[in-house]
Structures are given as C-alpha cells and as structure tokens.
Write a structure and sequence with these properties.
Blueprint: H1 2-5, H2 15-27, H3 32-45, H4 56-66, H5 72-122, H6 129-199, H7 216-291, H8 293-296, H9 304-316, H10 323-371, H11 381-392, E1 397-399, H12 400-403, E2 404-406, H13 412-424, E3 431-433, H14 438-447, E4 452-453, E5 466-468, H15 473-483, E6 486-487, E7 494-496, E8 501-504, E9 507-510, H16 522-569, H17 575-623, H18 632-682
Parallel strand pairs: 3-4, 6-7
Antiparallel strand pairs: 1-3, 2-5, 7-8, 8-9
Helix pairs in contact: 3-4, 5-6, 5-18, 6-18, 7-9, 7-17, 7-18, 9-10, 10-16
C-alpha cells in the first residue's frame, strides 16, 4: 500500500499517528488529549436520539462527559492552588489595611496643623509682618498638601468601592458554580440510588453525607476500593460460570468426537492396505519401463549392470530424498554419453574452423597467383614500396632472377643448386641498376630498404651457366658485368661451385636445394605459375570437399545430441510412484492420527469430567456470599451496573472536590467585601 501511494502521500501505521496528523493540519489543538475530548463531544452531540430529549440537563451531562476526568493528583493540585490564591489575597488585604491606617493617622495630623494655622492667623496682628507673611506662605503650602492628601483619600475610597463591586461579581459567579455542582451531585446520587437496587452495595448509605464534608475525598476513595473489590468478586464468579459452561460444551463435544474418530480409524486402515497394493504395482511398472529403453531408444539406454542397480534403487525408493542415487546413476550415464558426443562435436568444429581458414587462405593465394603475371620470391612489404618508389623516380632496375637465364650448359640439377645458392647468398632478388642510376638508387634505398647489384667488369670470362636476359641494353650490359664477377675460382668476387659452396663477400657457405628452380628464366616462371595455380585449384577443391564432409559430420553429431537430450528428458518418471508413496504415507499418518486422537479424546473426556466437577465446586465457593442469581446473564448485568456505579461515584467525588473550593472561595470573597466596607467606614 505504501509503495502504491508513493513518497508524496501520507501513510501511517498506527491510529495515534493518524490522529496527530489530522489534529496538526485541521484542528490545531495544543495537546492531543484536547483533540480526543473534542472527538468524544462530537460523537455525543451527533447522537441520532439526542434531538428527542435535548433538555438543559442533557446539555449539562454532554458537556460534563466531554471534560477530561481529573485524577486524585489533579484535584489535590487544584485545591492547593485555590488555597494558595486565598492566602495571597488575605496577605494583600492585610497590606491594604496597614496603608489605610497610616493614611488615617496622617489625616489626623493634618487636621491638627489646620487648627494651629487658624490660631496663628488670629494672632497675626501682634507679630511682625514679614514673619507673618512667611508663616502664611507655609500655611498655604500645608493647606495645598492637605488638599492633595484629601483627594488621595477620596480616590482610595473609590478604589475600595470598585474592589467591593469586583468581589461581589466574583461571589455571584461562584454561587452559580456552587448551584451547578450541587445539582450535578444530586443527579449523581439519584442515579446511584437506582443502581443500588440492582447491586445491593452495603456502603451506599454513607455517600450522601460525604459531599459537604472536607474528609469526603478520603472516604470516597475507601468506598471506591470496596466497589472495586466487589467488582473483582463478581468478575471472578462470572468467569467461573463461563468456564463451567465452556467445560460442559466441551464434554458434550468430546463424546461425539470419540464416536466419530472410531469410524474414521477403521476406514483409514482399509485405505492403507489399498495404497500398499497400488505402490508395489507402480514399482514393477517402472522397472519394466527402464528395461525396455534399449529397444525403444537410439542413444540413451542402460547396461545390464546399470539396470540391476536401477531395480534395487526403485525397490528402495520412498520419495524425493531417495531420488539422489537414481539421479546420480542416470546423470552419470547421460553425462558420459553427452560428453563423448560433445568431445567429438568439439573436435569436428575445431577441424571445420581449421578447414575454413585453410580454404580462405587457399582462395586468397589462388587469387594472388592469378593476379600476378609471374611468380616472385616472398618479399617484405617495405621492399615492395621501395621498388615502387624507384619506379616513380624513373630509375630502371630488374631483380637479378629476371635479368638472367640459364644456359644450355646448365643441367636440371645445376639449375636447382644454382638458384638455391643465389638465394642463400642474397643475390636472387637483388636489384640490378645501371651505373648512371646507382647514386640516385642508393639515395632512395637510404630512405627505404633493399639491396643493389652494381659491379664493374672484371675482365674475365662470363659465368657459363647463366646468361643476360634483360631487354634494356644498359641493364643487359650491367648484367654481363655482374656475370663476369661470378665463377668457381677463389679469386672471383662471387663464388658459386658445383659442390654447393658459395661465397659473396664475407658471406660463404653451402647450399642444398629442396625444391626445383622456379624463378630464373621467364618460361620457367610461367610454367611454375601454371603449376602452382593447378595445385592450388586442386587443393581448394579438396578443402571444399573436406569442409562439406565436416559439416555433415557435425550436423549428424548435433542430431545425436538432440536425440540424447530428448530421450533423457523422456525417461520414465516417478510422479505416479511419488503420489502413491505420499498417499500411503498420508493414509498411514491419518490412521495413526485417528488412533492417537481416539486415545487423546478419551483422556480429554475423562479430564473434562474432573474439570467439570471442580468448576461446579468453585462456583459454589465464589457465589456463596454474593446475593445474586447464579447464571451468566445476571452476573454480566450486575458487573455492568457495578462499573457504572464506580463511574458515577468517581464523578460524584470530582464534583465534591470542585464544590468545596468554590464554597471556600465564596466565604473568602464575603470576608473581603466586609473588610473593604470597614475600610470605607474608617476613612
């Protein structure tokens, strides 16, 4: 509910929180108790029957009920406050009396001075005029002071008269309160008299003499204690009457239940026997179903040893806690078969990926072979960019293998060895440039990367197994100069012997050919390219066939895995056997429960019989001193009347506590009025 309303809406979990929220945002009472009093007053005023008997007395009762009930401590505090206020006013009156006495004394002194001034005035003829003038001035000053003092006395008298009027008005208000409290007390006494006819309370006669007595508060407390004691005795007796009635009802119910349970017990025993027969039949059906898996399933089935274990597990099976052994056996078989098929599938997929990669590489190599005019040695990427840069700078060059060709003196073996020696010596793919472009070519190579052959004519006879094949005459001449530096003698700059030995500067060694010569000679390169394209095409076809075969094998293994999964999920289930076992357990439990309940109910019936006798004895003991009819209805009525009587007595006590301070306040105001009148007479 709180989540549905959201954070912006009010949500309270207790009635007190809700009341606090409503009072805060609507009524605004300082304290929550005042709001509760207001709600009780509204409920009382909006009573549907109120309009029929809306009298001044009823209004008084409603307003009285709406007031908060004062505790003993509250009443005591109110009395102490009234007493303190009375003492403060008496002290103030005493101080006022002292001031008035001083004023009367001063007035007498002023009268004496006035007489003296008059005598002095008569004798002024015999006194010096200046002295008489000074005395006259002093006399006039004293006369002015006396006039002011007289005005002050008049104001004091008026103040006393105002005080008398205020005290008289307060006394009339107090008298109204006294009359209201007296009417309330008489009404409460009348209502308690009516309740007395029902409850027959022995201390009722003392109440009428308490409300005008100063010790009535303590006496009311004693009477309230007696009422509470009587209420507790009535409650105890009522409780015993209710317990006896409950015990009687329970005894009748137990008698009926004992007969019903005996019938249920016999029926439950017959059902247990039927459930055992059905359970055994379902166990046999499950064992036969697992033995038949080999005939019906293609991938998932059990061996004879595993079938024997399964039969033992099924015979011992008593529910899901025992299914662990069966689940482990079936799971191990499925995992073994699935793992075997999965391993085969993984191997086939790896092989397929390798074949696909080989097929892609083969296709790319075939495309590259078909694009190039003739085959070339494997070069680094920077070498290709260098040679492109030389072409852009219009520098003529040829790789050495394109600039030469084999002569007729070179046999097939010589050709293979010679090409291998040139490759090992780093000469096969070296660039041949003419002498005039050497400097520019070296500048380009300084920024990029490659190697150049540019030699002067040695003056010797050219190498007999190689001949110049360059079409450009300048390049052809440079090739012939290079060939003049190749020979089998040790004094040649480039040594190439028939035993495989080679030397090129500081580099020397022996070569052993592993492949046929394929770069030197244009015809050889063309033929080699065709041969490589044919081989690559055959390799591509073979790879495609192998890839298709691999995909078919993968599809077959996946199909077998799907069949295995389907057969695994289609294994015979234990649901019906679980239901039969559960039903048997429930029936056994029902039978045992019926048997146990029969024993318990019989014991309960015997115990109930004892409780019934004990309860009857307690009723006699509890009700012996109470003058009421011994039934639940009578005692409930008496208990309600006692509670109402206690409430009326509490209201009577509160009204009395309010009446006495008002009486005291009334007497105090009478005394204050008398003192103010005496003060006026004195003035």
């Amino acid at each position: 509910m709180k989540k549905v309303l959201g954070e912006n809406n009010l949500f309270t979990e207790t009635q007190k929180d809700y009341m606090h929220f409503v009072n805060k945002h609507i009524f605004g009472f300082p304290r929550l108790e005042q709001y509760e009093q207001f709600i009780r007053l509204l409920i009382k005023v909006r009573d549907p029957k109120l309009s029929k008997e809306f009298t001044p007395k009823k209004v008084y009762e409603i307003l009285n009920d709406s007031l908060q009930t004062l505790s003993d401590e509250d009443l005591r505090a109110m009395v102490d406050a009234a007493r303190g206020k009375l003492e403060a006013e008496m002290e103030e009156l005493k101080e006022t009396k002292e001031k008035l006495e001083k004023s009367y004394k001063r007035a007498g002194e002023l009268k004496a001075e006035k007489s003296l001034l008059e005598r002095e005035k008569e004798a002024v003829g015999t006194i010096d005029l200046e002295e008489a003038d000074e005395k006259l001035r002093q006399c006039r000053n004293r006369q002015e002071d006396a006039r002011k003092e007289f005005a002050m006395y008049c104001q004091s008298i008026e103040n006393h008269r105002n005080a008398i009027r205020e005290y008289d008005a307060a006394a009339r208000g107090i008298q109204k309160n006294i009359d209201a409290y007296q009417m309330e007390i008489e009404q409460l006494v009348h209502e308690m008299d009516e309740l007395q006819e029902l409850i027959c309370f022995s201390g009722h006669g003392q109440i009428l003499s308490l409300w005008k007595n100063s010790d009535g508060y303590d006496e009311c407390k004693k009477i309230r204690s007696e009422i509470e004691k009587l209420s507790k005795n009535v409650e105890a007796a009522l409780e015993e009457l209710k317990k006896f009635k409950e015990i009687q009802i329970q005894w009748d119910r137990l008698s009926e239940e004992c007969s019903s349970l005996e019938e249920k017990k016999a029926q439950a025993w017959r059902q247990v026997n039927d459930a055992e027969t059905m359970e055994e039949a379902l166990r046999d059906d499950l064992i036969e179903a697992y033995y038949g898996l080999e005939q019906h399933n293609q991938e998932f089935y059990l061996s004879k040893k595993e079938l024997g274990q399964m039969a033992v597990y099924i015979q011992k099976y008593q529910g899901m806690p025992d299914y662990g052994s069966i689940r482990n056996l079936i799971g191990n078989i499925w995992e073994m078969k699935n793992q075997k098929l999965g391993s085969g599938l993984s191997a086939l997929e790896v092989r397929k990926e390798k074949l696909a990669e080989s097929l892609r590489v083969c296709r790319e190599e075939l495309k590259e072979l078909e694009k190039v005019p003739e085959i070339t040695p494997v070069r680094r990427e920077i070498l290709c960019r260098t040679r492109k840069k030389l072409t852009e700078n219009h520098i003529s060059f040829l790789p050495f293998y394109e600039a030469v060709d084999f002569t007729e003196h070179a046999s097939v073996q010589d050709r293979d060895l010679l090409e291998c020696q040139l490759e090992d010596a780093g000469l096969l793919d070296a660039l041949v440039v003419v002498q005039k472009d050497y400097t520019r070519a070296m500048k380009v190579l300084g920024e990029w990367s490659d190697k150049i052959l540019c030699l002067e004519d040695s003056g010797k006879m050219r190498y007999c197994k190689l001949t110049a094949a360059a079409g450009d005459m300048e390049l052809r001449k440079m090739v012939e100069q290079i060939l003049s530096n190749i020979g089998e003698e040790d004094d040649c700059r480039i040594v190439l012997r028939s035993d495989g030995y080679f030397r090129h500067g500081a580099l020397e060694g022996y070569s052993r050919p592993e492949t046929e010569a394929c770069y030197i000679g244009e015809s050889i390169r063309r033929e080699k390219k065709k041969e490589q394209i044919r081989k690559k095409t055959e390799e591509l076809q073979l790879l495609q066939q192998e890839l298709e075969t691999s995909e078919q094998e993968i599809s077959g293994v996946k199909k077998r895995i799907g069949i295995l999964q389907e057969e695994f999920h289609g294994l015979p289930v234990f649901d019906e056997l679980d239901e039969a076992i559960a039903m048997k357990k429930d029936l056994n439990w029902t039978f045992e429960k019926c048997s146990e309940e029969c024993r318990k109910k019989q014991k309960e019936k015997e115990s109930c019989e004892i409780l019934k006798k004990q309860s009857a004895q307690r009723i006699i003991t509890r009700c012996r001193e109470l003058p009421y009819e011994r039934n639940i209805e009578s005692y409930e009525e008496i208990l309600g009347a006692l509670h109402e009587y206690a409430y009326q007595l509490e209201s009577f006590q509160i009204a009395g506590m309010r009446f006495l301070p008002e009486e005291a306040s009334k007497d105090m105001h009478k005394q204050l009025i008398e003192k103010e009148e005496n003060a006026i007479d004195i003035v």
